[in-house]
Design brief:
Blueprint (H helix, E strand, L loop, with lengths): L1 H167 L4 H41 L3 H11 L1
Helix pairs in contact: 1-2, 2-3
């Protein structure tokens, strides 16, 4: 019995050990299969690793190229900044040189403005004087024409009196006085017309000189008015 019990115990231990060995063997087979799969996948892994290395190298080259481009860009920006600063300094010097000229030009403009204002005042004053002279000339001309008409009437009356004097044998003193009055009236009318014409010519000359100096619409209308 004791031997049988030992054998049974030994058989049970052998069964456990057999299971353990079988489990280890199965694990070994599994590791072997994984190794074989790794061996099969090794070329692809190597290719992937080589590709990754190449991509990493290309990426490194691109990074270097970007760094180089950025460096060139920074250098270009610095050069442009230097040029801009140099141009700014040149422009500042030119502006500082032109400031006295600007002051001179402003003075010249102010002087020209004052002269233009003064000339405009002179022109207005001369225009007023010319209009006043022409108004007086027209008045004188109208007065002379009136005197001439009166003298003509007197002349007619004198002629009638002459006929009457001849008929009645009176002295012809009235006729001579009437003729003198007629002559004086005609002479006054002629002088008035000549004076009016002379004043009109003076006004036309002033308007023409003003129009040549400043051919504006106002001076053109003034010239056309005095030429009418």
């Amino acid at each position: 019995e004791r031997t049988a019990s030992l054998r049974a115990t030994q058989a049970k231990g052998d069964g456990y050990r057999a299971k353990e060995y079988r489990s280890r063997l199965n694990g070994a087979y599994a590791r072997l299969r994984r190794l074989k799969e790794r061996v099969k996948l090794a070329p692809a892994a190597l290719k992937t690793a080589a590709l990754n290395a190449k991509l990493a190298e290309q990426s490194d080259e691109r990074v270097k190229e970007r760094l180089r481009i950025e460096g060139d860009r920074e250098a270009t920006d610095v050069a442009h900044m230097k040029k801009d600063r140099a141009l700014e300094r040149v422009q500042e010097r030119r502006i500082s040189d032109l400031r006295p000229l600007e002051g001179t030009q402003e003075k010249a403009v102010r002087a020209a403005t004052r002269a233009a204002v003064s000339e405009d005042g002179v022109v207005r004053r001369e225009s007023g004087e010319v209009r006043d002279i022409m108004r007086r000339a027209r008045s004188v001309g109208a007065s002379g024409a009136m005197h001439a008409r009166v003298a003509e009437r007197w002349g007619g009356a004198a002629i009638s009196e002459l006929h009457e004097a001849k008929a009645y044998g009176q002295v012809a003193e009235k006729l001579l006085g009437a003729k003198r009055s007629l002559s004086d009236g005609r002479r006054d009318a002629l002088e008035a017309r000549q004076m009016s014409h002379g004043l009109e010519m003076m006004a036309a000359e002033v308007a023409l000189r003003r129009f040549r100096g400043d051919p504006s619409g106002r001076n053109r209308r003034e010239l056309e008015r005095v030429r009418e």
